[in-house]
Amino acid sequence: MVEVANQRFGAKAFRRRELMDTTEQAVRQRGLWTKDDDELSGSVGTKSRGLAQIDFRFFDLKRSGALVSDRRDRWRLASPNPPSLSEFVQPPSDIEAPPNRAETHVQRIVRDTNAAKSLKALYDYKCQVCGLRIEPASCSFYFEVHHVRPLGGEHCGLDNHSNMLVLCPNHHAMFDFGIPHFLPSEMIFIGETSHNLTCKHNLTADVIAYHNKQIHSEFSA
Ligand SMILES: [Zn+2]
After folding, report:
1. Which of 8, 93, 131, 164 has CA atoms 20 to 30 A from the CA of 205?
2. Residue 221 CA to ligand 1 centre (angstroms)
3. How many angstroms separate the alpha carbon of residue 121 from the centre of ligand 1?
4. Is the pTM of this model over 0.70?
């Protein structure tokens, strides 16, 4: 009853019958209201036995201090709990419906993961730009390898170390968008900021030139 009273009335005053009815509803919704509760008549007027039992609980709750009555048949909770925040937070409108879906066909190149795997170990799974290492589980690392001259389309880059960088997801995305450019081979500029690459292997000059001319200029034009 206290839980129902808190949900239904909070700090507001209520009549005894109002709380009895809402308590009965709550009990029915939970499947705990039996046929006997309807059929057996109780000792209080025409109420069912179940409703009468709820009525009797008023005395227990008043004795325990949970319910107080400040005038005839006007009750309230002694210490209502504030409603939880989630009751007031409306979901953002953009998640009320699932996003639209579109069917696409993607052509993927099967990459030589062995080349990528051996390079990651060389860098201890750390981004060559920022040094970030992502460890989703103990001794398990997430890494991405970027092909400076892309493998697909008209680019025809090679899947070998001289065309690869070990990067975190952020810097990988920046390279995919052609945002950084090399100046010289072991330094990149992202906007106005220079970053020294950690380099334990060498990119070939033609790969760097390809990035600066075809990838960087393509996106910054
Ligand atoms: Zn990074």
Report:
1. 131
2. 24
3. 16
4. no
